[in-house]
Every structure is written in structure tokens, then in C-alpha cells.
Write a structure and sequence with these properties.
Elements (H helix, E strand, L loop, with lengths): L6 H16 L4 H26 L5 E4 L10 E4 L1 H24 L8 H17 L3 H19 L5 H32 L4 H7 L9 H17 L9 H7 L2 H7 L2 H15 L11 H23 L3 H21 L3 H29 L16 H16 L5 H12 L6 H28 L18 H19 L1 H15 L3 H9 L12
Length: 513
């Protein structure tokens, strides 16, 4: 099964150029290969998640070169859970893109979609910080192409803003990598975990600077306040399937923080003590508050959903910033929830867009297929707002429970509960404007009735909603699994031993000639 670890990266990397070179002018062939590839990705990701569910750490050495000299891919419970979540999300998003015709409104959608998956999945599987940077750049380039898919001045402007912010993050990432390599002589994560413990207290300046730079980079990716400015316009203006896929991209930043600051710079490491937990938790609380205030203040439906993503990332980062097994377990449970709920809401935005003159939250002509669309919105909205009985409510309870013992427990409870109330009011206002008050506004006499969305569009959104329901029904089992992930993260010796001690070409004796 170890060799299957590279498949989630190689498969989309091969499909993308094939689609460009062999099926550029045949949208039907592109759709078949793209959907088939993602279905295979779901199967492979599920198999990898099953193989690592017992705590096994899988290792793939590219070229059979051992760490830290060779490039390695590492699969543990955390990384395989994230690639499974990404693959399942990509399948429903792709179904919607095909059924709605978004994939045919510009060039190379399916090729860019596959490259995007390659970058995201590679970021989750890599065991090397430099290759994490490489995969960040792959997904950045592909996501920019997807963001401006179908063109438009507003979309292009939002795309440029998105790229500029992320290029700043990439520059900081390179500075951080340079500082880390200068201090330790390696960029392999497992090797770094060993070497940073050997740095004396008098020589920690360089590594502390690197740790802060990395935190800034990952905070940009996670849209953490005050580094969140790129997200509202970028996500709101992106094509609906692209914005739905982007729901997992902010989680790449959260994943990187979890991985790096439990493996390389854990809370008990004296060299970087206090750098992440001291500053990260207040920033996360502010992000949660600003995100949900943005939901209440938004004047357009798409920007409302974009701000809800910021708020949900604030909730995730609050739990991560506790840096306890309970906090990480709660964060992982909420990551799954917020990814599915955010993606569903972005697709619902597109259903509304196809039936209204604009997405302004003002009374307008009735939405086509209002009954089904309103039902989907109602479920997705109460999930994102954190109302019972769906997984958003359970996730917030887990976060609140994990906060017991924190110095900022009172602030955590106040911000979480207060922001939940604000988000409920914001989503209720949006729903009334879109589906209730709209009924009292008659359309113009000469208005042309908008075509009803394709059945498969509802199937794609319904699939995401169904997964949310299952995430709620099996909350106990899922939380038990995320707790086992957190336990593995805070006991990193098996990860380090597997990566460093597994022999490769460099460990084999050679003969002199």
C-alpha cells in the first residue's frame, strides 16, 4: 500500500496535461476523464485513510532516497483524513461544475482543476517544508487560473488581489525556509523535529524568527485577521464551483499550523515557547468576531458566505491555538464541518445568482425553484451558524469544552456564543430577503423566466448536505477518530522514526571501483 501514497499526486498531475493536449476541444471527453479521475482519487484516499486508521505511518521515498536527503511523502491519520475530505469535496464540486455548465464558460477548467487538486493533496502529504512551498505555489497558480475562469473585469481585479497577497506569503515562506536551513541544515520535517531540540538557549534567535515567519505565512493561507483582506472579494467573485473548492484551501493553512507546530515547534519546545499560543489565540478570536459581524453587515449574498468562511476559520484557529489534544481534536471535527457547509453555501449562491438580477440582499423577483433552494439554504445556514442539531453546534460544543483551563476561557466562551448569535441573525436576514420577502415582489411584466437549474446541481449540493447530516449522526465516531489523530500528533516519535530510520539508497553500502 506504501506505493499508493504518491498516487493522489501523480494521478491529477498526469490527467491535467492529458486533458490539455488530447482533449482540448472536446468538453465531453474532458468531463469523463476529470470525473473518473476524481472518483479514483476518492477510492485511493479512502484506502489510504483505512490503512493509516490503526496508527500506521506510511512513507514513500521518491527515487528510493532516504530522508533527510531525499524527498519523502508521509501518510498518517491527519494527512489521509485531509486528502479524503478534499477528494470527496472535489467530486461533488465537479458534478456541479459539469451540470451547471461552468466548466464550459472558459478554457482549461478541468486541467486547472486537476492541477489544483495536485497542489492541495501534495501539501497534505509532503514530509518536507520546501516541497510544502512548492505545492503551495502549484495550487496558487492553478487557483488563479480557476478564479478568472469565464473572465470579467471584477473577477480579474479580485484575482490580482488574491495573487498579490499570496505572493507576499510565498516571499515570507522563502525567507523562513532560508532561516531554518541556515540554522539547522535541513528542511525535512522529521529531521527538523530532532535538530531544533539541539539548539542552545543562547542561539535561538534565528529559529524563533523562522517560526514567526512560518506562522505569518500559514495565517495568510488561513485568512486569519489581520491577514484576511484577500478572501472576501476573491471568494465572492470566483465562479461558484471554484469558490466551493476553495473552502478546503484555507484549511491547508490550518493543516500546516497543526503539522509544523506539533511536530517541529511543539508547545513544550523552549526555543520557540510562547510564539504561537500567545499570539494565535487572540488573533483567532478577532477573526471569529470579524467574520460573523461581516455576515451580519454584508449587502450581497456571496460576500456574506465569504465572511462566514473567515468566521469559521476563526473558530478552527481558536481550537488549534489551545494546542492541546482536546483542542486539536475539536478543530479537526470542525474543519470537516465547515468545509462541507461552506462549499454547499457557495453552490447555493450560484443557484440564487441564476435566478435573480443580482445578489443584493434586497427584495427582488422570486428565485426559480425557491422551495428546493430555500430548503438547501436553510440546512446549510443553520449548520454554518452552529444551530442544533447539526454538526456546527456539536463542533462549537467541542471547542468550548476544550477551552476549559485556558487563561482566555471567558473570552473564548463570550466570543463564540456572541458570534453565533450574530451569525444566526445574519443568515436569517439573508434568508428572509432571498426567499420570503422576495415572494411579495412581482417580477416585471416583460421578464423572461430563468431556466430551472439542472437536477444534478441539486444532487451535488444535496450530497454535501447529506455528508453534513452523516457528520452529525456519527459525531461520536468522528470525534473519537479526530481524538486519535490528535493523540498521534502529540506523540510524534513514530512519525519521526518512520521517516528517519527507514532505509533507502543512501543507507545501503556501496562498493568503491
Amino acid at each position: 500500500m506504501t506505493h499508493w501514497l504518491i498516487a493522489p499526486i501523480v494521478l491529477p498531475a498526469m490527467l491535467a496535461p492529458f486533458i490539455v493536449l488530447a482533449a482540448r476541444y472536446h468538453i465531453g471527453i474532458q468531463r469523463v476523464f476529470s470525473i473518473a479521475g476524481v472518483v479514483i482519487l476518492v477510492a485511493i484516499s479512502g484506502g489510504l485513510a483505512w490503512a493509516t486508521s490503526d496508527g500506521t505511518v506510511m512513507l514513500y521515498q521518491l527515487g528510493d532516497w532516504s530522508a533527510p536527503f531525499g524527498i519523502v511523502l508521509v501518510g498518517d491519520r491527519l494527512s489521509t483524513m485531509m486528502i479524503l475530505l478534499t477528494s470527496v469535496l472535489a467530486l461533488f464540486v465537479l458534478i456541479y461544475a459539469v451540470s451547471s455548465g461552468w466548466d464550459n464558460r472558459g478554457w482549461h477548467f478541468h486541467a486547472l482543476f486537476q492541477f489544483q487538486l495536485m497542489g492541495i493533496l501534495g501539501a497534505f502529504l509532503t514530509g518536507d517544508l520546501f516541497n510544502l512551498f512548492v505545492f503551495f505555489e502549484v495550487l496558487l497558480i492553478a487557483s488563479y487560473g480557476l478564479m478568472i475562469h469565464a473572465g470579467g473585469t471584477v473577477r480579474l481585479r479580485a484575482g490580482v488581489q488574491y495573487v498579490l497577497f499570496n505572493l507576499i506569503g510565498s516571499t515570507l515562506f522563502l525567507f523562513a525556509l532560508g532561516a531554518i536551513y541556515a540554522e539547522t541544515g535541513t528542511l525535512n520535517m522529521a529531521d527538523l523535529a530532532n535538530r531544533v531540540t539541539l539548539i542552545s538557549a543562547e542561539e535561538t534567535v534565528g529559529i524563533r524568527v523562522a517560526a514567526v515567519l512560518l506562522l505569518l505565512v500559514f495565517a495568510i493561507k488561513a485568512a486569519l485577521v489581520p491577514l484576511h483582506f484577500w478572501l472576501p472579494s476573491s471568494y465572492a467573485e470566483a465562479p461558484a464551483p471554484v469558490a466551493a473548492l476553495f473552502a478546503i484551501m484555507t484549511k491547508v493553512g490550518a493543516y500546516a499550523i497543526i503539522r509544523v507546530y506539533t511536530l517541529i515547534f511543539p508547545p513544550e519546545l523552549a526555543a520557540t515557547a510562547g510564539l504561537h499560543d500567545t499570539w494565535l489565540l487572540p488573533a483567532a478570536l478577532v477573526s471569529l468576531a470579524i467574520g460573523m459581524v461581516g455576515v451580519l453587515a454584508a449587502k450581497r449574498f456571496d460576500r456574506l458566505v465569504a465572511f462566514s468562511i473567515i468566521g469559521s476559520m476563526g473558530m478552527v484557529m481558536v481550537s488549534i491555538a489551545l494546542f492541546t489534544p482536546q483542542g486539536i481534536a475539536a478543530a479537526l471535527y470542525y474543519i470537516v464541518h465547515s468545509t462541507l457547509a461552506g462549499a454547499a453555501l457557495f453552490l447555493i449562491v450560484d443557484l440564487v445568482r441564476s435566478s435573480r438580477a443580482n445578489l443584493d440582499l434586497t427584495p427582488q423577483a422570486p428565485v426559480a425553484g425557491a422551495t428546493f433552494t430555500a430548503s438547501l439554504f436553510f440546512v446549510a445556514a443553520i449548520a454554518m451558524a452552529g444551530l442544533p442539531p447539526l454538526s456546527g453546534f456539536l463542533g462549537k460544543l467541542l471547542v468550548l469544552d476544550a477551552s476549559f483551563g485556558s487563561d482566555l476561557m471567558v473570552w473564548i466562551w463570550a466570543v463564540v456564543l456572541g458570534s453565533s448569535l450574530i451569525s444566526i441573525v445574519g443568515f436569517a436576514r439573508a434568508g428572509s430577503m432571498l426567499f420570503w420577502k422576495a415572494k411579495s415582489v412581482a417580477p416585471p411584466v416583460d421578464a423572461v423566466e430563468a431556466p430551472a437549474p439542472a437536477t444534478m446541481s441539486y444532487v451535488a449540493i444535496g450530497g454535501l448536505i447529506t455528508l453534513l447530516a452523516l457528520h452529525t449522526v456519527f459525531a461520536g465516531q468522528v470525534h473519537q477518530y479526530t481524538s486519535s489523530i490528535a493523540a498521534q500528533l502529540f506523540s510524534s516519535e513514530p512519525y519521526i522514526t518512520t521517516v528517519i530510520d527507514t532505509p533507502g539508497k543512501l543507507s545501503e553500502p556501496t562498493e568503491d571501483h
